[in-house]
Design goal:
8-stranded antiparallel beta sheet, single chain, alpha+beta
Length: 589
């Protein structure tokens, strides 16, 4: 009997086992769907899966493939989450992506913007900029809180759709309550990423709003510093310095001084006022100049006692100029400016034409097309002109033909620039072709050491950056001057005639130096106008060009073939070069 009962029980449990192993299961239904292993039917109740917070969920840490599709209900998100084995993260059934993975790339690169005053609500100008590197897309929240709290904070949230580096603007909110004590750093504001402290913080000093910024900007003391180049970002040397007259009651208040933005650059500065002083402050430049135009800035301040604005002008350094220098004795007398003589020393000195703080003319220098002695043939001249020189300088010895003169006139007609120092007959040919007048003639007059007087005119060659030589003199070098006749005076500005004041020669009405009024052409009828040599510094009839120990153009004294004068050839040439560089930058080919 006992054996029969045992057999029966084995049969019953075996039937139950095989039924559960191979049949669908239905709850509240006897006919579960054939595609379902489990079907629950109810019109009154639902099914509950494990409910937990996000932190509790993360403690599960699925590791095997069999745990794919593990399902929980996230009470923080209020949605079902499942485990995705390929991406190895929890996914939301509500369509939300997971949290981003990112970090601050450099704590020192976090910046604070705006002024922070006690009892004064933050505005859109109050924010911090946080540089982050995103390694996994998703949602993010960035918060920054003072520790201890001081009535304000910063927060922002969003979604990173791609990995990479970003600068996130985190706006501020609230009203600072307690000002920073004198000498203290300010509030330590700690930055959290997705509610986790990042380890980065910034210090924000809170100013006492009861102390007002009372000061006056002294506009006459405004100074622009540094060298400015087109398409080159400003550096710490590009600044504007100013002097503030500060009221005694303003100690501890902040000054905030800014400029407008002009062609991509602007200046700003801020700091703490020292009451009862003339305080020198610095505005630092930012941005990249986008044009060569001079930039005039309006300077404004947050002063509560004075609403005066100041101005400052930034000049952009001229770009490197391509020069065709024609003439000889480049390394001795310097008729050709490309050698080692005084003429080249003057134009290559950084103090004269350079990119240093003390450079008189901010310029990136010169590139000579044919360095050294160069008296070109017609073919050589054409080849050189094909390289589109920014300007041409001519000295002795070179005697251009009519065909050569035609090439030079064509170059001028296209906006080219020529500084011609010539006493050869070829100079007459150039002028005949230039003015389309064959009656123009040239005659050699006077002698070595002749002295000619400049007129008193408002002209940038006679009164330029290197000096004012109006009413002063220039000297003829070593030979005769070729006076020019029948030039239409309505087309030119005359710089000198053929009267030799050293010898008392009244002249015959010839012109010995001029500038064309509509073309970029300066002519001086002496090929040795820029002559200088170490072996003849004291001569009173040769080498009238002079520079000092710093290569700056200066006058030569005691010059003349009879009565002695001080002559200013080098200053004329330096002013003419400054004009040529500027003209080439804005008007040249």
């Amino acid at each position: 009997m006992k054996m029969t009962i045992k057999v029966l029980l084995v049969f019953i449990f075996s039937s139950i086992y095989f039924a559960s192993a191979y049949a669908q299961v239905g709850i509240n239904t006897e006919a579960p769907d054939e595609k379902a292993i489990l079907e629950i039917v109810s019109s009154e109740k639902g099914m509950l899966v494990p409910r937990m917070t996000e932190a509790q969920r993360d403690l599960i840490k699925p590791t095997t493939a069999n745990q794919q599709s593990l399902l929980i209900f996230n009470t923080d998100e209020d949605c079902f989450n499942y485990w995705h084995k390929i991406e190895k993260e929890w996914k939301s059934l509500c369509g939300k992506i997971g949290k981003a993975e990112f970090e601050i790339t450099d704590c020192n690169a976090v910046t604070v913007s705006g002024q922070y005053l006690s009892a004064t609500a933050l505005t859109p100008a109050n924010y911090i900029t946080v540089p982050v590197k995103v390694t996994k897309v998703g949602t993010y929240t960035i918060t920054a809180m003072p520790d201890p709290a001081n009535g304000y904070y910063f927060t922002t949230s969003g979604e990173f759709l791609a990995t990479g580096n970003y600068n996130i603007i985190v706006p501020g909110a609230g009203t600072p309550t307690t000002p920073t004590a004198t000498g203290a750093q300010g509030n330590e504001v700690k930055i959290s990423l997705n509610d986790v402290l990042s380890g980065c913080s910034v210090f924000i000093p809170i100013e006492d709003s009861s102390i007002k910024p009372l000061y006056t900007m002294n506009c006459s003391a405004t100074k622009v510093n540094g060298v400015y180049k087109i398409n080159t970002p400003l550096t710490g040397s590009n600044t504007i310095t100013m002097t503030l007259t500060v009221d005694a009651a303003a100690t501890g208040a902040s000054y905030i001084i800014t400029t407008n933005t002009v062609d991509g650059i602007s200046f700003s500065g801020s700091g703490i006022l020292i009451g009862g002083t003339n305080q020198v402050v610095t505005l630092y430049g930012t941005g990249t100049p986008t044009s060569m135009d001079p930039k005039k800035f309006t300077i404004t301040s947050n002063s509560k006692s004075d609403v005066t604005t100041c101005s400052a002008t930034v000049t952009i350094a001229y770009t490197k100029k391509k020069v065709l220098s024609i003439g000889t004795y480049a390394n001795v007398y310097g008729y050709n400016f490309s050698g080692t003589a005084y003429s080249n020393q003057m134009i290559t000195a950084q103090a004269n034409f350079g990119t240093q703080e003390n450079s008189l003319i901010k310029a990136e220098g010169f590139e000579f097309i044919s360095p050294g002695d160069f008296s070109p043939s017609l073919a050589q001249l054409q080849t050189a002109l094909n390289q589109n020189p920014d300007f041409i300088i001519m000295g002795v010895w070179w005697d251009p033909t009519v065909a050569m003169a035609d090439l030079l006139v064509d170059y001028l007609a296209k906006g080219g620039i020529i500084l011609a120092f010539m006493e050869e007959a070829g100079g007459t040919r150039i002028l005949q072709r230039l003015f389309a007048n064959t009656s123009i003639s040239g005659t050699l007059v006077n002698a070595a050491g002749a002295v000619y007087r400049y007129p008193i005119l408002n002209d940038e060659i006679l009164n330029g950056p290197f000096g004012d030589i109006r009413g002063l003199q220039w000297g003829e070098d070593a030979s005769q001057t070729r006076a020019m006749y029948n030039i239409p005076t309505s087309s030119i500005t005359v710089y000198s005639n053929d009267q030799d004041i050293s010898a008392g020669n009244a002249g015959t009405g010839g012109i010995t130096a001029f500038k064309h009024n509509s073309l970029n052409f300066i002519f001086v009828a002496d090929g040795g106008f820029n002559s200088a040599a170490n072996n003849a510094p004291a001569s009173n009839t040769i080498c009238p060009f002079n520079i000092d120990a710093n290569k700056f153009p200066i006058a030569k004294t005691n010059y003349g073939r009879s009565t002695r004068y001080t002559v200013y050839n080098s200053i004329f040439t330096a002013n003419a070069l400054a004009w040529a560089i500027k003209t080439a930058q804005f008007k040249g080919q």
